[in-house]
């Protein structure tokens, strides 16, 4: 049997470790002949952009792939139509047949699981034997059912590390200051919540943490800052990029009417820079905003060893599922114990994950809506443990990359 | 003899290693009794904010201090008046005498060296025996005479690492994209130039690098991008925050007239976000800007071992200078060989460094003004070598910090 594997959605620091797990387990199986990579996921596959993984990989490259950020096989955002009568489906299956593909494994988030779901339903409809499996990936950690997503632990570790670093920097001067750190997560606040791990003791920075799961009020925000400034000189505040007010309006959309250039084009700004300005105007103190931006999902030097290993194991589990003849499933991580931290892997119906989001639950957010709880720390801390050993040349990280 | 030490200006990831060198060498000398730290530099000293270093530090704490980012003794921006008849001078010397201070060592950049210069000139004027010495520090690397500044190597390593990481992320999708990374350096482009170390081969990202030393032209920038997009799909471009046009106007000030809110207040934005908008409007392709921001100077996990050691050695050299009775000097790093990389330390008259800036020289900038040369790589690469071992608890970095 031949296997096709693809990556889809936003890259993470761990998505390639899942690919490494798939390749490693496939190479270990006598039942799997050739592993093909779909370059740019299902979108590239439709253009016959296929990469022969057997010809390229050896043990050393698989090892290097584990700590390589970005999507090694390149990615796409290419939703398949809901209508299974769409001509794209027979086209895809014709291409699968041409390469004798017996199983397709897609590494991705919510949208990618929808792709797996639709392809498997089309296969069932036409009685095609190809298996379709999903391997979870997202820094947002918003896939349902699964305890946590590969990619999240490393991103959370980057956030906690930088927030702690920034906290060391901002307290240098005598004058009071407010620093607002904007963190990824448009709908789910998992990544923003991880900033609490930077806090060393009660009252340490980050003093406030605002998630998109609960309404954000500017007045309440000002009151928090006013209170915070009575306790300490330098406030570090973490906000999710997706915070919204009680009417559901994104804070990043505030002031958009005035924020246009001479051609009438709107500037696209994050909520951090908007809050920075509002705080500066209100409190007349030194205020800055920092958007952690892309390094959140690609800074290999902050990888969590637990995350990278789990991502790898998810890939291995997908190959095991293929060999077991499983279909229309996503690999799931289950936390079976927290002290000591221990997980196992299972399969869940991909239909149950497709296009569904998991939010930070109420018990992990303090009633004051400006902080997260001990329950969250217990949940998140095990996921950032351990460092990976990244390969270096001239003291800079070296990664695996194909030209395409 | 008692010693007073202070830190001044923006913190770096290496400034505390210089302090560790000073403390370590002072503890080793039988001639030095008590080492005092001026909290918040000369500003805090005027308020009697003095910290007894002997009582606090042991070997373990000195070791931890070496890899701790931020200014351990807190910092200030507090220029002393040029007029040596100002009453602030007798006030400072009265306080020095009260603690029997025989030498004051100030760790800082250009402005701090001006402070050292003025204090030593005042001492000479009144015939006071206190010695004044400077230890260089700045991520901007813009102090004159010295081969390079402690703090620069670690910041350069952070920049090169993140630019390489971001380069791995941005090439995931099929659609073309432009990513603009904004790097610290308002007048000198040393830190922005270090982004070239992320380039693995000719034509690799970052494709273009723009420094403040040469005029920036939007038209030329557009032409560069147009040309770049014929060669590759995803352009990564590095710009210094301080790029200016031929008339000396900062790009970050472009569009400021329209960029006001309903109260008429100006938004303060970086040049990255302005260029992002201009590129988006012109090329109608996916464009994003990333400001590397504070982590450039506080990300301990990207410290250069060479930098941290040299910073430490500069501190040791300052104590040696004190014991030799030197006055009005700054510790200087001299590169005596590049292959193998080797430095020694000397002293230079602080007058020659005070308020002077060193810019990236013409031979390190390509005539096209959009890239840096091999000469720069030869200069910079030795400075980022080696990793430090940062102490961790729960897999997050732990640092040394005093409550004050």
Report on the structure:
The structure is a homodimer of 404-residue chains. The first copy, chain A, has helices spanning 15-28, 41-46, 53-56, 59-66, 88-98, 110-126, 152-170, 190-193, 218-231, 271-283, 295-298, 305-323, 374-380; strands at residues 2-7, 35-38, 50-52, 101-108, 131-136, 177-183, 208-210, 234-240, 286-291, 329-338, 341-349, 392-393, 396-397. In chain A, helix 1 links the parallel strand 1 (2-7) and strand 2. Chain A has a seven-stranded mixed beta sheet, sandwiched between helices. In chain A, strands 7-8-6-9 form a four-stranded parallel beta sheet, with helices on both faces. The radius of gyration of chain A is 23 Å and the shape is elongated. By secondary structure, chain A is of the alpha/beta class. The two termini of chain A are 26 Å apart. Residues 257-265 of chain A have low confidence and may be disordered. Chain A is built from 13 helices and 13 strands.
Quick overview of this protein structure:
The structure is a homodimer of 404-residue chains. Chain A is of the alpha/beta class.
């Amino acid at each position: 049997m031949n296997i096709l594997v693809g990556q889809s959605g936003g890259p993470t620091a761990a998505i390639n470790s899942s690919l490494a797990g798939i390749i490693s387990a496939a190479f270990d199986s006598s039942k799997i002949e050739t592993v093909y990579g779909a370059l740019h996921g299902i979108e590239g596959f439709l253009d016959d952009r296929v990469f022969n993984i057997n010809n390229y990989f050896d043990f050393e490259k698989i090892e290097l792939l584990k700590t390589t950020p970005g999507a090694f096989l390149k990615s796409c955002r290419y939703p398949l139509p809901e209508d299974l009568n769409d001509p794209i489906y027979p086209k895809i299956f014709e291409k699968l047949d041409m390469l004798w593909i017996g199983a397709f494994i897609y590494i991705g988030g919510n949208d990618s699981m929808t792709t797996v779901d639709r392809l498997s339903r089309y296969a069932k409809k036409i009685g095609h034997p190809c298996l379709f499996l999903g391997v979870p990936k997202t820094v947002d950690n918003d896939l349902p059912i699964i305890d946590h997503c590969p990619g999240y632990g490393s991103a959370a570790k980057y956030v906690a590390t930088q927030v702690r670093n920034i906290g060391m920097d901002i307290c240098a001067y005598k004058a009071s200051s407010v620093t607002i750190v904007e963190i990824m997560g448009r709908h789910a606040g998992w990544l923003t919540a991880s900033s609490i791990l930077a806090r060393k003791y009660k009252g340490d920075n980050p003093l406030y943490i605002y998630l998109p799961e609960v309404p954000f009020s500017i007045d309440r925000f000002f009151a928090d800052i006013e209170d915070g400034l009575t306790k300490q000189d330098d406030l570090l505040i973490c906000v999710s990029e997706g915070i919204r007010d009680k009417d559901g309006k994104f804070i990043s959309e505030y002031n958009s009417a005035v924020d246009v250039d001479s051609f009438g084009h709107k500037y696209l700004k994050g909520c951090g820079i908007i809050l920075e300005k509002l705080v500066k105007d209100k409190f007349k103190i030194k205020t800055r905003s920092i958007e952690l931006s892309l390094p959140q999902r690609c800074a290999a030097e902050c990888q969590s060893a637990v995350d990278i290993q789990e991502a790898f194991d998810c890939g291995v589990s997908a190959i095991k599922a293929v060999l077991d003849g499983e279909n229309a499933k996503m690999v799931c991580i289950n936390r079976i114990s927290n002290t000591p931290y221990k997980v196992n892997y299972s399969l869940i119906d991909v239909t149950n994950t497709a296009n569904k989001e998991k939010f930070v639950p109420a018990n992990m957010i303090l009633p004051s809506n400006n902080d997260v709880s001990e329950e969250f720390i217990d949940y998140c801390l095990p996921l950032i443990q351990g460092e990976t050993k990244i390969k270096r040349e001239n003291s800079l990280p070296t990664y695996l990359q194909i030209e395409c």
